Amino acid sequence: MLKEFVRCVRKSIRDNVDWVARYGGEEFLIVVPETDTRGASHLAERLRGAISQMVIKVQEKGMHITASFGVTGFGPATPDDKISPEAMISQADKFLYQAKQEGRNRVKAGQL
Known about the structure:
Elements: H1 2-12, E1 19-22, E2 28-31, H2 37-53, E3 56-58, E4 61-63, E5 69-73, H3 85-101, E6 107-111
Helix pairs in contact: 1-2
């Protein structure tokens, strides 16, 4: 399942610009530099839809999965002292858990 998830993500992101990395059991970081929060949110929504439509074969049975996304970013008004990899991951994680608490298979996004 996880391999198929990653294949779907890789098909949807830019080669040699964006990247995906496993960040826990079933959590992944998708980094999209040069993309604002709105653009990253649109990407997450496209991925969410594509993933929910996938049929994954497991022992000859077709299975479906869903995904929730937490998305964050920063803009020109974000103070420099608030921008760090740790802050970005923490904020995205908060949005991810909010999406899960609100029913899963959704995207939650906002600025740092």
